[in-house]
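User: Some background: our group keeps a shared notebook of sequences we're curious about, and every so often someone picks one and asks for a predicted structure to add to the entry. Today it's my turn. The entry only has the sequence so far, pasted here. Could you supply the structure so I can complete it?
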Amino acid sequence: MRFVGALLTFLTTLSMALAYSSGPPDNMVGNPSSCTQCHNSFTVNSGNGSLSLLGTPPTGYVPGQVYPLQVELQDPGQARWGFELTAALQSNSSQQGGTLATANGNTQVSNQTGNARDYIKHTSSGTSAGTQNGPVTWTFNWTAPSAGAGNVVFYFAGNAANNNGSTSGDYIYTSSVTLVEATPPNQPPNAFSLLTPANGAVIRGMMVNVGWEENGDPNQGDVVRYKFIYSTDSTMAQSDTIDTDMSSSTTISALVPGTTYYWKVQARDQLGATRLSNQMFHFSTEQLPPVDPPQCSMPTNGASVSLSANTTFTWEPATGGAPGNTFDYVIWFFTPTDSIAYPTDSDTSVTVRLDTVALNLSSFPSFMWTVQANSMSPAVSIRASDMFVANIASAASDPVLPNGFTLSEAYPNPFNSTTKVNMSLPNSASVRGELFNMNGQLVASYDWGMLSGGQHVLSIEQSQISAGTYIFRVYAGNVALQRRIVYLR
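Assistant: Of course. Here's the predicted structure to add to the notebook entry:
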């Protein structure tokens, strides 16, 4: 009977050893149970061997990423090997932290229901029976849990067996490794496309609305802001920008007619990551008809006006520009020492009491006036081609004659076709003019005949001379005055 009892004990021990060689029961990883329940010859971690988990990311795991890991076991004098591992959430150790999967026939997975911890362990072929001392490794794949899972703890145990066919003489090792959830690197905003105006569009007018896709950001909670970039240079070497904050559209104004503009958009998240739009678009502005200047009408050139009474200045309005173009008008008054702009809401006239104009007109025998039109489309300002002279009448309405012969500076100067000078005569005189180049050569002559005393405008029209600086000399009888003028072709 003793023999029978001993035989049964031996068979039971052998059966357990052979059964565990194909994989231990679940939850033998040392949290809280370990393989010493059967392999109890020595206490846990009392041998001269080592148990390690290799391949874990040193800075923490990226949620959802797959990592190839290895369990490595070695112990001098041992010759058969086994292991078991589970991954658990640190916040709830009963729930699995990620997914375990085999990489070859040396491992197997014991899947649990729901979110309970799965276990990966050796197979019979994975015990490497007869391999002396080790190290022996088992390779498997671990898929990290989704974002927000927090830290994951790997609990694992290794059996460094002596291959004697029983559970005696084996060393059990347990260990754990904790992985933190890594802060994901900041990703740039998502790709996005430009929308309007379509690439290659032709724009009528001096303003355009542009728009692009709202692209969003892959980083949760990031806010995307936009910068609109545009240039007349296709290389964008020099460009202008408009910060649109979180708006996916903006408006550009004051565009130049007949010009091509190139544009793109930069998206930037709150951490500074940027992305440019998928495309660079371009559009062109339509070439507009030219703007024709206004023309001065009344008072006529050389007329007398009173400072103490209302004077109405009239003109022919400007024309041209874009269809439906509108104009604002300004009257300019000039004395030999100063000038002032007088705005008006009218398109053709304005009434002014001249002694209210801040130019001290009473100090001069005359002044000059012209009208300026401010075009809306295109956005240009253009003055009348004429500048009229207004003689100031005395209180008794007697004409006031100048005290002497004077000659104003030319206007405009430089000029490219016609310029004018204001001349004062104290009495009637024969007036003629000569134009000299800087070498003293006479290049043109003018004869205005006999002119009465008062204010006169001398017009100099020239198109046959070369560009450069000239001396314009005016003779009134035997007296001469001269001014320097610049001609541009």
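Suggested note for the entry: Residues 2-20 form the longest helix (19 residues). The first strand starts at residue 50 and ends at 54.
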